[in-house]
Design brief:
The complex is a heterodimer of chains A (338) and B (356). Chain A is mainly alpha-helical and 338 residues long. Chain A has a domain of 199 residues: Orthogonal Bundle (MetI-like fold). Helix content of chain A is 70%, strand content 1%. Chain A has twelve helices and two strands. In chain A, strands 1-2 form a two-stranded antiparallel ribbon. Chain A is flat, with a radius of gyration of 28 Å. The relative contact order of chain A is 0.13. The N terminus and C terminus of chain A are likely disordered. Chain B has 356 residues and is mostly helical. Chain B folds into two domains: 93 residues, no CATH class; 217 residues, MetI-like (MetI-like fold). Chain B has 16 helices and no strands. In chain B, helix 3 packs antiparallel against helix 4. The N terminus of chain B is likely disordered. Classes of the chains: A mainly alpha (338), B mainly alpha (356). Chains A and B meet through helix 3, helix 4, helix 5, helix 6 and helix 7 of A and helix 5, helix 7, helix 8, helix 9 and helix 10 of B.
Chain lengths: 338, 356
Amino acid sequence: MDTTQTAEAPPPSPPQPPADLDQGVQQRPVLRVGDRLFLAFSGGSGILLLVVMAAIAGFLTYRAVNAISQDHGNFLTTFEWNTGVTPPVFGIAVLAFGTIVSSIIAMAIAVPVSIGIALFITHYAHRRVASPLAYLVDLLAAVPSIVYGLWGALFLVPHMNGLDLWLDKYFGWTYIFDQSAPGSAARSLFTVSILLAIMIIPIITNVSREVFRQVPRMHEEAALALGATRWEVIRLSVLPFARSGIISASMLGLGRALGETMAVATVLSSSSVLSLHLLDPQGGTFAQNIAAHFGEATDFGRDALIAGGLVLFVITLIVNGAARLIIARRKEYSGASA
Amino acid sequence: MSHTASDLGARHRGSAIARNRLPKWTPLAIAAGAVVVGIGIGAGAGLDSHVQWGLIALILFVAGNYVVTRVADGPRQAKDRVATSLVYACFILAIIPLYSLIETTIAKGVKVLDGNFLGHSMSGVLGTQPGGGVYHAIIGTLEQVGIATVIAVPIGVFTAIYLVEYGKGALAKAITFFVDVMTGIPSIVAGLFILSFWILILGFGFSGFAGALALTILMMPIIVRSTEEMLKLVPNELREASYALGVPKWRTIVSIVVPTSIGGIITGVVLAIARIAGETAPVLLLVFGSQVINNDPFEGPQSSLPFYIYEQYNLGNPAAYDRAWAAALVLIILVMILNLIARGIARWKAPKTSGR
């Protein structure tokens, strides 16, 4: 009977260890050399990351202060960016305006569309269509921004002319869509916004898809059981649950749009004009300004560009920090970490 | 009895729940109608942009759908239909540019993409001439990304191990928060940091290594995040079983925790590589660019694939545009291959428990 039991079920062995343990266990704090080394390595890596973060802020501030102290214009309100002349006059007014406006328009386009696609993948499309689609969106999120930039400059810009003319004709009275020179090349903030929207759609879609997927099935089934239509299920159970996830996904997209360099640098024909005529080729953004002026910049000019970069850094820090704090309140969105 | 039953059935079919049945093909029919009318209006009014035709058709479709469903089925069903059509519209709206991006890149990229293009540099080729290639840029990208990976992977993985296996206090919280924030640093800011620190203050020259340092900054937080997620998936029972056998914590991590999640970790690393391989901005500020092959990442200017695309685009002539498209295609293929490898590893090394 003994043999059959041991052959059938290994579990009966546990009763033996206590005898062993009695001999082996001693009351000593176990901290081996390997453990200490490992803790030091892993803790050190973490601290290194914090140091890098602090160093970024520190060094950028150091160079930026150097530049701003010699600025003969007001750094916040000056339009032009003349660092090569003496005395240097440069400011971020146009850049801040361009960055914020283009990002806001991009968000206004991208967020609803992304939510639509995410809903399509999670709640509308057939399972067999949905998973390749999700995969495709994943791949699109990985397309490098310079490729978007190239496509934007060589394909999108010529194709925007028709839309620009139409907007100018019928919505010119809004001032925003008025073109000073109808038919001019569409290297404008508006085109930039659309390109940015196209770029961040895969990102926002990916994160919100993950969030939609985590909505408890019971919530949806409860709504269905009450006779809700599919839209009512989404409105009553999916969207409320996913709200903070959508917000943080959008903030991540916003962070990307704010800091996007190459797509803006290739498409926008920049100038130091601050104007609400969004269809006119003018304006600039922080990142684009750095890429455009870096080549011919003097040592001082580089410091000035670093000052611009510092402002961008602070803005994205705030946006990303806010997004993370929103996520932190609702821990269950692990998917939002993408 | 049977009479009553069928009576009941008839009443049910007539009730609010069962009645709302427009035939399934109704939306399709409305869509077809809307497209026809949209094209009609577009062509009739002489609108030359096909986008406008599409938009008119779209508006007609949504409105038509709403009206028909509202009349036949009532307002709740009508709202549902509108939501459905909007979701489909969003999807189509987004697919068009994304499809166009891929299609254009492939169509224009294959023009000059051949063995000669891959095997030669731009040395001695005028910007306006056809010919030349991308070899020096591929070398640059591989070296820069390689160096960045070698630096970023150990730091990233160890940080993740700290966060999952050791971290509990304020330090771990701070690291988690700043890693999250660091993920969102614009690439050009990372480039500016290395510029101010490595080149302006420490006085080193422009080199592939400087670019690699900036890429490292971008890569570390991505690896920390993905590795952290993977380590969290390792069941605690495995760790406890190992401790129960008297295995030290570090041995447990090295021989139990990491091997269990190695597939996910590698997937994360490969995805991170794919992500930084396409970064242009930091490279633009730090490697200076070069037309000739420079195999030494520590000395002298280098090029890289994204930088090459930007450079050729800025030359602004047809031959240079062709090269830019071809290089873009090479870059996309590289990134896609890395992605596919990552998926493959993820599937191959997936935790066995989740499959069943």
